[in-house]
Amino acid sequence: MDSKGIIVCSGKTCQSVKVAPLEDERYCVTVYYNDGCNVNECIDVIVKKIVVITVPNVFSPDGNNTTFYIEAYETIKTIKSMSIFDRWGNLAFFKENIAAGDKTQGWNGKFNNSDAIVRGVFVYKIEIETIEGKIEMFVGDVTVL
C-alpha cells in the first residue's frame, strides 16, 4: 500500500487486504480481467474514535484501593468534572478539571471531606473532554467498602 492508501499489486497477490486507518480514508481498487477489461470500486472507511476510560465499581478507602479515580487513556484531554451522590441525591464529592489518571484528585470516600468514611452505594456522573474537544458523559455506581 502506498502513502495515499492505494493498494498496488498484480496477479493473485491481493485477494484480500486488511486496513487499519487512524483517520477517515478512501480505498479504491481496480480489477483487471479478460485481457484488458477492468472494474473500479471505492470504499470509504469512517474511523470512529472510541473513548476508553476505566471506572472502578468498588473501592475501599481503608484498603489497597484508597481513592475512587478515573483511569483514562490517550483519547482523554481532561476530566471536566466528577460528581458523586449518595442514594438520596446529596452531593458527596465534586471536583473539576482533573488530569486524566491522577489518583490524588479522586474521591477518598468521605462525605464532603468529613472525618468519617461513608460506606454504601454511590452514583457518579463524570464529564470528560476528548482530545478532539468533544464532551462525553459517563454515569454509574460505585460501592464503598
Structural class: mainly beta
Helix coverage percent: under 10%
For the secondary structure, the number of strands is: 9
Rounded radius of gyration (Å): 25 Å
Structure annotation, total helices: 0
Task: Characterise this structure.
- The chain has 145 residues and is mainly beta.
- The protein has 2 domains: 1-48, no CATH class; 53-144, Immunoglobulin-like, CATH 2.60.40.
- It is 0% helix and 43% strand.
- The strands form 3 sheets. It has a 5-stranded mixed beta sheet with strand order 4-9-8-6-7, with no helix packed on it.
- It is rod-shaped.
List keywords for this structure.
2 domains, five-stranded mixed sheet, two-stranded antiparallel ribbon, 0% helix
Q: Topology, please?
A:
Blueprint: E1 25-33, E2 37-45, E3 53-54, E4 58-59, E5 71-72, E6 76-85, E7 91-98, E8 120-130, E9 135-144
Parallel strand pairs: 4-9
Antiparallel strand pairs: 1-2, 3-5, 6-7, 6-8, 8-9
